[in-house]
Amino acid sequence: MYLITILLLSVFAYIEVFNRETIEKYKVPFAFFCFIFLVIHDGFRWETGSDWTAYLQAFENFWNDNNGSYTGAFESGYMLLMGGIRLLTEDYSVYLVIHALLFYSIFFYVIFKISDYPFISLLLFYMLTVPFMGMNRQFLAMAIFAISLLYQQKGEWKMALLLILLATLFHRTAFLALPTLLLGHKIQRRYILIGYILCLIITMSSIINTFGNELALLTGTDSVSGEKIEIYTNQDTETNFMITILSFLRKMIWLVLLFLFDKKVDKGCNERKYTLLLNLYIISTMSYLVFNGTVLQIIVARGLLYYNLAEMFIIPYAISIFKNNYGKLFLMLLLSLYCTINIYKGFSNYGEGNDYFEPYKGLFINTNYERKYI
Prior knowledge:
Layout: H1 2-18, H2 20-25, H3 27-43, H4 52-60, H5 76-88, H6 92-114, H7 118-129, H8 136-152, H9 157-167, H10 189-205, H11 212-219, H12 223-233, H13 241-260, H14 271-291, H15 297-303, H16 305-308, H17 311-319, H18 326-348
């Protein structure tokens, strides 16, 4: 299913790059097809994705959960949404379809508003989100945050702030997105370079690992949060420096291209938008360098998801640098490979031998497969 989806979205991305007339003529039906496909992808899944049991039990026991065993750690906004759907149906698959409709409706709207290459952005969006499929609350928080980007790019900070605060009602990690309100101004290159050097020094010193126990004490305020923090802080804390650096360099390829060929980047008429997205991506890569492979891996796994969204808008800018020739075709093929590698790397982050995502199990596919881990 995942490879089929990558192939499908890649086809539309290739058409967008090499035949703009076709994509402009059929943009609406192409987008609608992708939308329906992704809604089915998420909405018709069964026992596929992270946190499956927790959300299923919370939904099924919504009216009987007097002591908060299943829903006690859930934010109020998510509880209201789930309660409203629970009034209409007891079928969890119906809930998943409604959730997928909300999630993809918002992101399709944002992507087609922000990106000059929306189908490339859709391909990258799939890469960024599918390894986290099942994080129902945070997906909705990310969608609301994405709307705030529409206001941030116009400098409407009050509305953007209200949206981020609204997002915290669905997942408290949205508070980590508040600094994005300060990223609308251009940062001088020398300060960016100094920032990366400092991050590299912090990474090499492994000083972050000394804060693991303190993090658990500060954030483990409820049973669900405490269990998750314990999982992250009890992971192997011996940082594989080379793996972190190699992954970081992979992320930096696009940034280097944008810096080297800045004058060739098609920034459109909204310089503020480009600056905001570029700064988001810079913060994302810096934070990855500092926290990846440490006891604060939870920041990479959860907190950076809001900042990582910039990648689906930044990479199309980098691709716009190149002329339509065989070199650009090779770059697009590499982009599909890049997405595939990142998706399966994301799946592997849940632990060796896990089957949370593979094989994809849905209402009409691999129905007889019994999960080892759900």
